[in-house]
Design a protein that fits this description.
Length: 217
C-alpha cells in the first residue's frame, strides 16, 4: 500500500514538473538578450575596447541616414564604439583617428576623417560648391549661408562621434566619415587606427588600437 502511494506521488510530481517547463514564453522571457555589437571586430587591451561598424552597403546606409546618405557620394560612414572597461576615465584624441586602406599590391594609404560640414557640403553639392553670389550688402553687413549644406549638417550632427572622454565602465559611440571616392569596396579590407588613448588619472598612454572592418552588410 505504501509503495503504491509513493508511486502515485512520484507520478504527480513528474507531471507537475513537466507542466511548469511547458508554460508558453517562460524560457524566452528569462533568456538573456543577445548583444547586437558582439559580432563586430574589436581590439581590446589595457581596460579599453574599440570596435567599429562600417556602413558599406548602400541600402543599410540609406536606412540610417535617409536623403543625407554619405555613401551616395563615396563617403564611408563608420560607427566607432569606445568601451571603457576599467574603473578610470579614458581620453581619446579623436583628431588622430584614421582609416587605413589596404590595396591589392600591398601598399596602403592613411585617410583622415572628414569634418561634418565637409561631408554635408559634398552631399548637398555633389558636383562641386555653388558659384559665389553677389552680396547685396557692404562687406561686414549680413552674411551668405549655404542653407542646403546647413540642413544636411543638422541631419548628420546627431550621428557624429564628438565625445573624447569615456567615463569608467561606460561606452561612447558615433560615426566618423571617410572619403573613399569611387571605390567604397576598399572598406572590406580597411582598418580603423586609433593611436592616441590616455588614462586620465595617470596620463599614461595606451598602446594603439587597430580594428579590421571586414565585411559587415
Amino acid at each position: 500500500m505504501r509503495q503504491a502511494f509513493l508511486l502515485i506521488a512520484t507520478v504527480i510530481l513528474l507531471a507537475a514538473s513537466g507542466f511548469a517547463h511547458t508554460i508558453p514564453g517562460q524560457d524566452s522571457a528569462t533568456a538573456p538578450a543577445a548583444d547586437s555589437k558582439s559580432s563586430l571586430p574589436v581590439d581590446r587591451h589595457e581596460g579599453m575596447a574599440v570596435s567599429a561598424d562600417a556602413y558599406s552597403d548602400f541600402a543599410r546606409a540609406k536606412s540610417k541616414f535617409g536623403k543625407s546618405n554619405p555613401l551616395q557620394v563615396g563617403i564611408l560612414p563608420v560607427e566607432v564604439f569606445l568601451h571603457n572597461e576599467s574603473g578610470q576615465a579614458m581620453r581619446i584624441q579623436l583628431e588622430t583617428i584614421q582609416l587605413v586602406v589596404h590595396f591589392q599590391d600591398g601598399s596602403q594609404q592613411e585617410l583622415d576623417w572628414l569634418d561634418i560640414k565637409e561631408v554635408a557640403s559634398t552631399i548637398a553639392h555633389p558636383n562641386g560648391p555653388p558659384a559665389p553670389k553677389t552680396r547685396r550688402f557692404p562687406v561686414g553687413i549680413g552674411s551668405i549661408s549655404d542653407k542646403k549644406t546647413d540642413k544636411v549638417v543638422d541631419e548628420l550632427q546627431p550621428f557624429a562621434l564628438d565625445a573624447d572622454v569615456v567615463p569608467p565602465m561606460a561606452t561612447v559611440h558615433g560615426f566618423l566619415f571617410f572619403n573613399l571616392g569611387d571605390d567604397v569596396s576598399l572598406a572590406r579590407t580597411a582598418t580603423i587606427y586609433v593611436p592616441d588613448v590616455t588614462n586620465l588619472p595617470t596620463s599614461k598612454p595606451l598602446m594603439f588600437f587597430e580594428v579590421k572592418l571586414g565585411k559587415n552588410e
